[in-house]
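Quick question about two entries, pasted in order.
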Amino acid sequence: PGRLAAALVAAVLAAIVAGAALSPPGRAVVERIREAVGVEDAEPALFRLPAPGPLLIHAEDAAWIVRPDGSRRRLGAYREASWSPFGRYLVAARANELLALEPGGSTRWSLARRAPGHARWAGTQTDTTIAYVDRTGLRVVAGDGTGDRLLSPAEDGPLAWRPGARHELAYVSASEVRVQDTESGRVLWRGNRGLNFPVLALEWSTDGRRLLVVSAYALRVFDERGRVVAQDDPSDGTLEVDAAFRPGTHEVVAIRRHGSQSTVFHLRSGKPVFSGTGVFTELEWSPDGRWLLIGWETADQWVFVRPAAPRRIRAVAGISAQFDSRGFPRVEGWCCPR
């Protein structure tokens, strides 16, 4: 996939540059693009986070937790990891094992499964469920590790639980996105309007009334009935990379990559939030919705942006080395919404 994306970017670079200024939002974005790679006054290390709550990081086949004071703890060798709803536990995966962990790294329980992945944990204070994918298909298991069962065969891709007490899961099936009640098995709605596959990301708004679906060439926001209420269709050669709801709102920010430039922008207005040369990999809002973390792989930096006035930018350099990683670390989540 990385080689394919690079080839696409190279092939359409000239067309993107020529067409970038066709619309007023496009001109505004281009004018705000940073020519240098990286923020010049970036801090040399992550001394602290700008907002409360720990970060969960995946780097060099290991999971890490970063506390608000900047301290880091390596949890162990895992292919991926994600938070439980209230940050009390984590679900992690190895090559043939699914595990529930304490934030300190100790194991609560484990299941032997072939190539588990995309694990997501959701629920209330007293009733939680984990969804994941293995070679048999899409599966669900209770938060205590019991009752593991197959929900749908041969499904793969990102998963997203609808917030709240309802056991409703969004997932990708063939050429559509489905929302299904995992208790009754009933499919609540299906959507594929204008989407391109594969789907890169699924995310619910905090209130569970909107579902964000990101693919490389299309972005859609669905309401609770499966109707498209917002969308983005980038021009030829421009790629959607990631998108996220601001916590507590239906406001969406997204990353577009066009040629040698990446831009974070507001979906509704098209107004740019931050631009730079090279590759932005992901977005992650702080739990309080005040700060936006942007992964800038080309610069090996994390950039923290506070979009609201007074606007502020904080950057941290040398991210890969801080996690003993040859590749750029991936943010798995900033815990936890209150």
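Here is the second entry:
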Amino acid sequence: MEIRRAAPRSFVHVSDLPGSNEAARKAASRAVQSGDLVRIRRGLYFKVPGASRYGPVKPRVEAVVREIFRAPNSGFGPAGYSAARSQGLTTQVPAKFEASALRKADPPVPGVVLHVRSNPARAALNEKEIAVLEVLRSPEHFVDGGMTTLARKVNELTTAKAVRLRALGKAVAGEMREFMRR
């Protein structure tokens, strides 16, 4: 992948660039100086969509943390009010994006509260299933319409094949909190 050929609003990893590691880092550095890329963190850059009168466009913090945990078995998904909001279960807007994963981000991502979970069954879940699992940790706090609203939403997601109840059940069995095993 070349920097010029990267789609606007996409992430560019130095490891994906052609040439030696040193040449790739220098190319990314030059692209940052010319305004084509914005540095997010070591080895990760964002392709700027174009000129803006307000300066370079930066990606949303949710997109950055999603890109960092892009591996399929990372167990990544939104947590807390961010999870409930992603499912349309609350109108609350968290001050910081909350996420959960099986490992921590090193260095931490500014603007993100990351909850590291130790349940290996989460690795088999997709992002929507992780969100449901996180809402189940404390539905009385996160869901505006109560358990009936949550049940309807899970049924809707299951019908749309966005959530697999069997996989979710296996993950719930591995969670530490006793009230989730009811």
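Reply: Residues 1-59 form one domain. The mean pLDDT is 92. Hope that helps.
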